[in-house]
User: What shape does this take?
Amino acid sequence: MLIDENHQVLLWNNWMTRAADIPAETAVGCRLDDLFGAAMPTRLAQAVDDAIRLGMSSVLSSSLNKRLLPLFKRVPGTDRRDAIKQVFIVKPIVSDAGRHCLMQISDTTNAELRERALRQQANELLLQKELLTTLINAMQDVVCFKDGECRWLVANQFFLDLFGLSEVDYAGHTAEELAEYSQVDVSAATFSQETDEQAWQEGRPIAYEHVIPLSDGNVKVFDVCKTPLFNPDGSRKGLVVVGRDITERKTAAARIQHLAHHDSLTDLPNRILFQERLRAALAQARRGNGMLALILLDLDKFKETNDTLGHHVGDLLLRAVARRLQHCVRETDTVARLGGDEFAVLLTNLTSADGASTVAEGILRSISEPFSLDENEVMASASLGITIFPDDGEAFETLLKNADLALYRSKSDGRARYHFYVAAMDEEVQQRKSIEQDLRHALGTDQLSLYYQPLIDLRSGEITGAEALIRWHHPLKGSIPPAAFIPIAERSELIFRLGRWVLHRACMQIQAWKAAGLPPLRVSINLSPAQFRHPDLLDTIKSVIAQTGADPRLLQVEITETIAMSNFGYSVDVLRALHDLGLAIAIDDFGTGYSSLNYLKHFPVDTLKIDRSFVADLGRYPENSAIVKAIINLGHGIGAKVNVEGVETSEQLRFMNEHQCDECQGFYFSRPLPADEYARLIGQAAPWTLTSTD
Ligand code: C2E
Ligand code: MG
Ligand code: MG
Assistant: This one.
């Protein structure tokens, strides 16, 4: 506005109209006093006066006089009174027209607000930066910001501590430049510029694991993520590196992995890892036309060591065997424990199968050396089965199966030896399988029957009973001897069904003969090892006896001495219980096992049956007669009757007679007979003449 020397308004612009809400028509011609009244600040009035009278310029701020503010409160852009800021510039204008004063009122509200906002923003930024610094320093992760040229901008305390850079002014330097200050390789620490490059090139965050060697010789594993940052024009702006220490997780995972793949007793690879290694070795051998050998190994009679010396010594033996096996092979070969007393050895890079036999011989030798275990000197031996890739098979499963067959052969050949797989073994297995299948069908049909071989009392020449022997008449294969199918049945649950059938059939027969008026003669039945060891044996026998009503005193069970001795405590209990039921007990095939007299005297034995082999070779091996005599004395010594099986000739009979054998059975008297023929024989047979001189 322009004011004349009388303080009268000469000019009033639009801005003033809006600001003071006074139209120009009203304002022009009015005196300032009239327009603003008491609201007119004295200093402003003074300034106008000074301009007109003295030609002085003044600049006044509205804050000096709050009373003016209401007049200008409608300054565009704000309603807030305290936010309204004006600057009054009062200038003199001297012209021909006289002395005037120009008063400019500038609104500075917006400018001030902006300035304040900027200041606030700056403060907030500072605070944010402080928070951010605290935050990244509190993190137990590696954090680093780099610029577009891999120079460090900010790194957190964890990072600096880890690499010994706390005292180093790192900003603006690359990892390579910082390397000389660090105790560890900083180029490794920044997780290499190569990956920086990769992140930029891929234009997206990349993640990978990084192993950092530490000065103490340990390593740390980091899970690293690099995020590239770009300017709007696409140029490289920087990079954020974040690395999480996953060493513990890795160690735990490695431990779990180790546990899952190793046997806890011996720390050898377990079956799972062995299979993995075998698969990998096979794949490699296939690519390189290589040869490899798979050896399966089973300790002989390990159960006995366990039973006699205890599980603790058994465990020590397994560990010691594991160590010896490892010494028998090269480092590149694998020794594994597949379970129990079963080990496997994988030999790679073989040039010939001879290499495998050399190793196998070494293993047998090594295991045959005595083991000192907890003050026990333990002798052990092992049976081995070897199969060769590619000669014996290509597939993983085939090789395992073949090695197992070869091992089985070593076991059945008398143990403590090795066998290479030969195709014929496969055939044998097929045969075994088909017998097992056919036997399953045969059970419950008339393909199976019991034959009875008379037992003769050597003093009276009378038949005292019979041994029941199973017979199988196969519709296609004809007669199959028990030795060909009992061991196969033994390998599955079939033996229990078969055993129960024999028992039931024998009891029924006892009842049938009783009904037919035959004298009460004893029937002896054979119990197989698995049957004898089965916890249900007693119950089965009791239930069959109850079912059939047979007199238990007419039953005798035969078990071989090896079964009786293999678990002494259990055998004593079971045999006593059977004896208490009224059954007689016979020890079959006596002389072939390793009976200890000490043990034998604890069994309630009624009969010792001398094995047929001693009788057959009486003439050929003079020592056999000594053995037979000894067994007869032994039997009598423990109060048992002595039976001899397989008497075929009168010489054999005479020998037995001379040495006070009690009972005989053999083809000399009779072959095993069907039930009705046996009954007929009892009806007719006068006592055998046992003292023939022919
Ligand atoms: P074992 O219990 O020792 O039975 C005696 C075997 O000697 C029978 O063979 C019998 O036929 C045979 N034998 C008897 N006298 C003579 C002889 O003078 N000369 C010759 N060369 N052999 C004679 P078998 O019936 O072939 O039985 C063989 C084995 O099979 C039996 O030996 C027994 O261990 C087993 N076995 C037979 N039947 C059963 C059964 O029902 N259950 C079980 N678990 N095993 C059975
Ligand atoms: Mg027998
Ligand atoms: Mg026998």
